[in-house]
């Protein structure tokens, strides 16, 4: 039986715990309602002026990544979005068509180093 063990209202993340009596193993999981964030990303992708204004001011809001995706990439691929040494791997993920919903722009960027 899956039980909720925590809810973080700031991030919207629910942490669950499930124990399998047959195998003696347990699973800790995270669930996050990412709908509002992804809708915002989609809206920003359509607003080409938003990207252009940012680039002119030396910043570019390239993506918004939900915490559950950050956790997934770390656990499954070893990619830490907070580690500057993983920057190329993060951009590679963001530029993959499978993750285009995370981008706030239709532009393309890949760091040189």
Helix proportion: 25-40%
Structural class: alpha+beta
Rg on CA atoms, Å: 17 Å
Oligomeric state of this protein = single chain
Question: What's the story with the biggest beta sheet?
Answer: 3 strands, antiparallel
Q: Compute the number of structural domains.
A: 2
Would you write up a description of this structure?
The chain has two domains: 1-32, no CATH class; 34-108, no CATH class. Strands 1-2-3 form a three-stranded antiparallel β-sheet, with no helix packed on it. It has helices at residues 35-46, 48-56, 67-77, 87-95; strands spanning 2-8, 13-20, 25-32. It has four helices and three strands, in the order E-E-E-H-H-H-H. The termini are far apart. The mean pLDDT is 91. The radius of gyration is 17 Å and the shape is elongated. It has 113 residues and is an alpha+beta fold. A hairpin with a 4-residue loop joins strand 1 (2-8) and strand 2 (13-20).
């Amino acid at each position: 039986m899956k039980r909720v063990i925590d809810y973080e209202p700031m991030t919207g993340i629910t942490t669950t715990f499930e124990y399998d009596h047959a195998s003696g193993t347990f699973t800790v999981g995270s669930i996050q309602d990412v709908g509002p964030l992804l809708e915002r990303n989609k809206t920003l992708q359509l607003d080409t002026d938003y990207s252009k204004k940012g680039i002119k001011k030396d910043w570019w809001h390239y993506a918004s990544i939900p915490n559950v995706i950050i956790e997934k990439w770390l656990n499954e691929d070893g990619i830490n979005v907070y580690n500057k040494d993983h920057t190329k791997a993060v951009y590679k993920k963001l530029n993959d068509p499978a993750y285009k919903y995370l981008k706030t722009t239709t532009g393309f960027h890949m760091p040189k180093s």
